[in-house]
Amino acid sequence: MPSLLSPIPDARFGPAQARHLLCRVAFGPDRVRAARLSELGVHQAVETVLAGADTSGLPEPPVDPDVRRPFTREEQQAYRQAINSEDPELRKKAREARQAFDRKDRQMIRDLQPWWLERMMLTPDPTQEFATLFWHGHFATGYQPVRDAYLMWRQNEALRRYSLDSFATLARYIVHDPAMIKYLNNHQNRRGKPNENLARELMELFTLGEGMYRESDIKEGARALTGYTFSDNDFSFNERQHDDGSKTILGKRGKFDGEDFVGILLKQRACARYIALKLYRHYVADVSDRYEDLEGSAKLVVDQVARVLRSNKYAIRPTLRTLLASDHFYSDAVVGRKIKSPAQLVVGTARSMRTPKRSMVRQHEGMRVMGQTLFEPPSVAGWGVGRSWINTSTLYARQNTCVYMLTGKSPGRKWNKKGVNYDPMRLITDLDKGDPRGVANVLIDEQLGPGLPAERRVPLIDFLAEGDKAITRDRLLGFLTLVTAMPEYQLC
Amino acid sequence: MTEKLPFTRREFLQGSLALMSTLGTVPGFLAHASAAPNTAAARGALTAGRTLVIIQLSGGNDGLNTVVPAGMDDYYRQRGGLAIPAGEVLTLDDRVGIGLHPALRPIQEMYLEGQATVVQGVGYPNPNRSHFASMDVWHAGDSRAADGHRGVGWIGRAFDQELRRGRSDSLSCVTIGEEAPMATQGREAKPVSFTRADLFSWSGKDLHDQVASAYDGLHEGLAPASNDDPVDFVFRTALDARAASTRVRRAVARDSQTDFPNNGLGRQLRAVSSMIAAELPTRIYYVALGGFDTHANQAGTHNRLLDQLATSVRAFYRELEAIGQSERVVTMAFSEFGRRVKGNGSNGTDHGTAGPVLLFGPKVRAGLIGSHPSLTDLDNGDLKFRVDFRSIYSALLDDWLGLDARAALGQRFRSAPVLEV
């Protein structure tokens, strides 16, 4: 039986296909890079985008491990004395000292959000950041209940480190991750007084999907995770709070701990299928998050990806290697039909239009209005995909953030031409400025895709070729702004 | 459970008419059933055009200094210096000793005219004292939401249901603010949200005229054909956005006939009144007033905020009356929790639990609903709730808007008796 995962023949892997690959794994297109990749043939091209790059020169994270450092015994004592004292001044001082730590921590997460966004824009290894973002949405953890920015960054680093390694490693890691433990209250999960939150989400959202286990499995799984806590910034196993009795999880019986529990989950067929579906939704198509809803080629491909995952012991790289080289990935049903996430839109615009350095805080604010705040997913279920990103309000937020990135103009503010600080002519140094129609078509192919119908190109081409004069900086800026306002620009 | 209602002519007439029609003939529940429209169509016709405005008081409004139990000695004993002196409290019901903060005189006026309702002791089981978690509970419409929700709220779910029934408009829900509140997010249904109506449009059009006209050209050619195609979906949303933007901006550009206070809430409610005047198909408007987290030196801040609330709401209904629209608008003001009974050491109050919910409009059942929570029978120093907030949501969705409260709340709640409909 011919598999939908059979590789696309090299004869059909041209610059358009290489562009599609970059859009889906590296945030956005780049026609020079696409041309180079297309000459390598599909396997080598995919290998190249998955290979990684030296990221050592990127900006350092703005973190301080000590903001949430637990009080020493003396400090604790002094604090308690002050807060319970008769002297209102002393009580006030103690309260204010505590509030100062809270403020510092909130500031740290507000610095980390633009830090990560900038990293996505600058990194020579966008594939890694795009995968890290995927895992952030999968093992969704929000700053709000965690309220410890350093732990959020630690998790981010771990997800980045393992992002293309193995799902098994990630799943094993996550039950040891202090931010996750705090987010899902596992530090309150004790022998005889279980808290089921982590056990439940581990099954429902991280490994198996809804309905693939019973309530009793959650109860027993929670017992296996008792004592998995953290101390200061690190995981800690509290043996006295661990329930070492016998448990029955998904038909297996033993004195399981958290590692055993994760091991049992990874052995389930449902787990590979669930992760295959999540990968498919991130890289390939906006389909339902319920396996039962899948039909046609999407269902077949997810089944096949699940098999690849299992035979590779959940290794991500070989799985993506197969998926991203597949005939299906380059089919008409896939290309140009996925709605960009806010991160994809913003980072993709920055990278492919080489927009200048502007306020990262503002650009991240734009993403927040579009519905995607880094380190603050809406819930443990993470972000949705596809149509959930687009409505009448977010569409303007998406268009207007692009306007800001290109021109420096904020909505409702007067535009200062001097503030543009951007030379779009850099994008066309390899093209003939005297041929505006030709340039328009090349840029449309790159930014909106070669599949854009001729009649949709006309207003854009006419704009750039007004009077058929050589292209000026202003014209080109207006043209690019219009490109980002095309409904088609929301898709990739 | 209703305390004495303020005696107004309108109340009296309505009350006696209702009484006459049912007296001694049919049992009450049957009379209610026969009076209620019993087909979906009749119900739709009745509730069409009705609008709900929600005012979120963010930060945890001090309920005890909003609706003041001046008749309870314990209030003065426990609140100490922060207590409102009995002589300054604006009486609502002197029989039970309940009144309003002195800054709420405009609300007292509305109350006496039969246009305001005070529901006392509103909350939910196992209260959470974190702003974030408690606001999630109110937004999700689910008392367990503090442990993790799904980013979807009660209003969003109600409109998801409407969407499934083919009865929705892109302007069904409008929120004013940077981000649409979770309450208004559905799985599919999404609100329109903006900080200022003039910003609800493409900002690139100001670059120069040619860009603006090219932008129009790019959108004129759109012709969404199918439902399944993602490109068509974005086309349709783009067209909806342009239509909604035009309608909203045109509506809000209108001058109001009466004056509004020039503050945050006043400006938001003025915009809402203009959209109501333009008869947008909006069922729910959502606005917010923040700053209620009064841990220190509360008195002045709280006074200013309540003044802003009262004068803005009063102005809002004056305007609605002037344009003949007040009958179709009910407004609800809520906060994520009240504050502790005892003040703290900084002339402020810390996070508490139950608090009052205020409703406004000619169609509310004016009066005090519920009795004031006890100040001595406390739960860890906090008030025990008496009215589940979802029973108010149920009344507003089901009885006022004709939306599916059960779908929105995931279970059935008996509607609180807050409306005269």
TrEMBL record, chain A:
Matches recorded under InterPro entries: DUF1800
Domain of life: Bacteria
Name of the protein in its database record: DUF1800 domain-containing protein
Taxonomic lineage from the root: Bacteria, Pseudomonadati, Planctomycetota, Phycisphaerae, Phycisphaerales
Automatic annotation (TrEMBL), chain B:
Family annotation (InterPro entries): DUF1501, TAT_signal
Cited Pfam families: DUF1501
UniProt-listed PROSITE patterns: TAT (PS51318)
Cited PANTHER family: BLL7424 PROTEIN, DUF1501 DOMAIN-CONTAINING PROTEIN
Protein name: DUF1501 domain-containing protein
